[in-house]
Amino acid sequence: MGNTQQNSHGSMYIETARPFYSGGDTLTGTIHMNLLKPYNANQLYLYIKGSEDTKWYERVKVYNHKTKEWTKKTKKRTASYGLIHFKVPIYNWEKSRVYPGQYSFPFSFTLPPHLPGSFSYTSRLNDASGDITYCLEGSLETNLPGAHAALTSRHQLKIRQKVDATAFKNNISTADQRSFYNFGLFSQGTCSLKCKFDKNAYTSFDKATVNVEVYNTANRLDIKEINIKLVQDIMLTNNYGKRQIRNTVDSAKIAGVKSGKNSPTGGFSLQLPLKNYSEQTTTNGHSIWCSYRLVVTAKPKGLFCWSKQPSCELPLIVFPSEFKEEVGMVQAPQDWQPQVFPENNFELREDFMYTPEVPGARGEDDGEEEEPRGSGAVGRDVSYHYEYDNQPGDPGNPYSESNARANGANADYQYYDHGRMGEEEEVKSNEVIKPRSSMTYQ
Prior knowledge:
This protein is mostly beta strands. 2% of the residues lie in helices and 50% in strands.
């Protein structure tokens, strides 16, 4: 496993013993080198990197001090938050010269606890994205004059969100009862919905099963159908505010119950096969949150104002069944008989930390000032982006901030904080990516 980089002097790649890890696990791996020519370098390093990156486009109202006018512009909000950044020396050559040969450098270390899981999301309109990425990078380098360019290899590291075992539950029951009115005045009766969920944690390609009972004897309305849907809630944050996104990623439905009747004894069994969510599992990061809910709704026949439908909801934990290596197993060179060095077992100490390069501000001061954020401002702190039922841009009720942050707000995470970097950039007229007119910014 690993990504190979090579040049005229040779090649390098990194492999790990497992396809994925969690915070607090001991990671074991090997850096392999195959040098064909002498290499002017004296130090082999292992870089351990992890970051959260967010981006979205937002309409804001700005005041131009030069023209003394208010205008609306589309701004690109980008930010990066460093989770882990370590540079660990693996081996040193005293003569600053590495001779041709085959080398293997085993290593092991314990990952910091409470790392958020690997995550990757891009909206259908390509106007919002969030990524939590980790990698290992081997680098043969030196700062001496006349040295060759560093020979490197990068290995994408998959981190699985660690979940407390006490959070897993089976056979969870919930119930809801609603009354229906015509024009908010004339009662049509009540309907009760009772759901029993088999569990609250699923893997990719798993099957969610819900037992549904409908009590409709006190209702003059038919229940047309019973819907089940898996809702994904994502929140991206940076120094400029928040972006909340809601997607219905899976759904199914069955026939309902007639007026004055109840569901059959034992209720209905409703199943929802899950898709592959290996890149978008339940994640509680510093600036990226992703959570899931199973929602079961009894939909009455007809349209009734000011009447809510009976609905049962269960927060879910979704985690990957397994990570598959994207690049596959690297084929060893012919007659591969490397010199194997003793395993380097190290701790991620503070003196191994380094600060990544921070991108500089783009452009010059344009003499513009954004309108203060708050009620009534075009670009206030909370902006909503809806993607209901696989239809982008479908408006709906604002999703409460407290629910979106429910998992992240109480998380006690410890990070190796190397600073939070925020950057904004005005979208140029020739840039293709712009929010569609159907998008609602509040």
